[in-house]
Amino acid sequence: MKKLYVVGIGPGEYESMSIRAQRILSECQVLVGYTVYVELIERYFPGKRLLTTPMRREKERCQLAFQEAEAGNDVALICSGDAGVYGMAGLVLELAGQYPQAEVEIVPGITAASSGAAVLGAPLMHDFAVISLSDLLTPWVKIENRLRAAAQADFAVCIYNPSSKKRADYLARACRILLEYLPEDTVCGAVKNIGREGETSVILSLGKLLEYEADMFTTVFIGNSQTKAIPTAGGKLWMVTPRGYQL
Amino acid sequence: MKKLYVVGIGPGEYESMSIRAQRILSECQVLVGYTVYVELIERYFPGKRLLTTPMRREKERCQLAFQEAEAGNDVALICSGDAGVYGMAGLVLELAGQYPQAEVEIVPGITAASSGAAVLGAPLMHDFAVISLSDLLTPWVKIENRLRAAAQADFAVCIYNPSSKKRADYLARACRILLEYLPEDTVCGAVKNIGREGETSVILSLGKLLEYEADMFTTVFIGNSQTKAIPTAGGKLWMVTPRGYQL
């Protein structure tokens, strides 16, 4: 039986991939994925059959991958970050019953919550919530409820998909909701293009985050009541949510 | 200036480490960590100076690592999973001001939420909360509030540190709280020894999870209202939280 691997490649740079993901991509004959992600890694895996589909063609992408596996290939369906966090693992497993000849294996990767946190310092050292602001597949009211619940229970929050061209004001909307519960000086951070060309990061207050321009490749971090901005000798700031150790 | 890397090595098996983590551990002269984690990887990095401290000696571990860096070594402080999720990154950055001669870099890894999810299927495909049941450093009432908030807002939940010898009934206590809000047949899962010898997993209802015996090396997943157990041709079940794609 041929295998369909759903592979999280981490934030994008080759070195962020797990050794296992690297081995599996080397061994597969076919790599399938969203165009942008396949382009990030194709030069490291020459001689593969590459199949790409644009954004919003997720179901088609999974079907392509299954068809290639049923045709006798080992196939890797590539996800950025982790395969199981807003990735393709769920849709693949929902469709798997239609392709009994392909065996599915999920290969985890480093998700943006972890890779972005490492750029900023340690904002997710304590309990945290991960929330996507994309309302393509989720009613906004549900997203809003989750923001409210996370703020009320003093979770640190990591926000995926904070903004896009069509949803330019969504991060500001989220900040306004959070500001109903959290002080303006709550320590926040944002990282753009994690582990890719043009990586930038900023540490700022929730009040300032309200005016921050995020894009599709930004991950946003909201601190909890204990989160601090710690200055370093070099003038850089670290965003740190203490776990509670006695210093 | 010498560097102190805080390195997440993933769940434990060598292949789960990122290529970057592997390179950094190869390049460092000194590896520092909790005894169990250092033992997991030391055979892959021969010829290193190894310094270990037992559990609950986290501050001492960080100080040891800084002292080695200030003495002129490149040092890797090893964390299981991700360095920034209940790892050592936060404590290191809180102490960094005392060791201005050492430059700190955080190297992320695959946390148990991702690696455990991949074993079960795709339980964290939608918004989720990560909660530790350890009340060593956190008042139980705060943990309880977070469980309530997560259940009320229909987050999937990933539970770290569900149990230990001294906290044998904590997972059951958490389940009882969740059952105030969630139906007994909510789909849940648990994975023991992720990516290590003796890895086992189970998919079960929240009602059954109440009686499940977790240990220190278990990660627990509570589905949201949409989470399903999908049977495969081979008789295995997958735990899947749909993101909402039209099938």
UniProtKB/TrEMBL annotation, chains A, B:
InterPro entries given in the database record: 4pyrrol_Mease, 4pyrrol_Methylase_sf, 4pyrrole_Mease_sub1, 4pyrrole_Mease_sub2, Cbl_synth_CobJ/CibH_dom, Precorrin_MeTrfase
EC class: transferase
Record-level GO BP terms: cobalamin biosynthetic process; methylation
Sorted UniProt keywords: Cobalamin biosynthesis, Methyltransferase, S-adenosyl-L-methionine, Transferase
Pathway: Cofactor biosynthesis; adenosylcobalamin biosynthesis
Enzyme Commission number, as recorded: 2.1.1.131
CDD domains to which the protein is assigned, alphabetical: Precorrin_3B_C17_MT
Coiled-coil zones: none
Pfam families in UniProt: TP_methylase
Domain Tetrapyrrole methylase: 3-209
GO molecular-function term, one example from the UniProt record: precorrin-3B C17-methyltransferase activity
PANTHER family in the cross-refs: COBALT-FACTOR III C(17)-METHYLTRANSFERASE-RELATED
Protein name: Precorrin-3B C(17)-methyltransferase
Species name: Candidatus Copromonas faecavium (nom. illeg.)
